[in-house]
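Worked problem 6 (solution included).
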Amino acid sequence: MKMNRHDLKQEGSTENRGNIGYNGAMPPLAEKERPRKRVPLTIEMYHTLSEQRTFASDERLELINGEIFEMSPIGSRHARCVKLLNEFLIRHCSENSIISVQDPIELDDHSEPQPDLSILRRTADYYRDAVPKAADVKLIIEVSDTSIEFDRSYKVPSYAAAGIPEVWLIDLESEHVEVHSMPSENAYGLVKIYLRGENAVSETFAEFTLPVNDILG
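Solution. The predicted structure is:
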């Protein structure tokens, strides 16, 4: 069930087809054998595997749509962007909210991503006894360098399906900021792209306006 996001584009290659014959072809099914049904992991199953030390202690993983994905390493430019945005959000958007950094949220029974930043509904106990649910999330920010296609194709649609009001996708490689809002079943109805020299503007928080040059560095 575990998949490395860097291998997503290679799923059709023979390296990722499981048990294959020496000639690269799938072995024929027995006459009465049925293809195995793929059962998505639940968050409870995922946590049980973690408690049983199925994964290495230093692995950075997240559960998306019932599948476990290895998260990309965090480089210095990525880390710098998260720090800057965290500082800005604490100063301007934390009066009635909690700013969460790279912490898990539960979108549904099969998804527990760890976005770079989340603006959460404020609670007195700071979510001491439970991971925030989708209904607790006001805005999510994902900072992407090597993971842009994964974030855009897998995570953003999952956030939309869960009803997250707004998602910012910071594309460090292409140097722009995408602001996704108006969530529907599996996509956002409104996507605005901001380039260097422009100010990225939130559709949800009037006080969240920041120069793209500052975000990208």
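Discussion: The longest strand covers residues 137-144.
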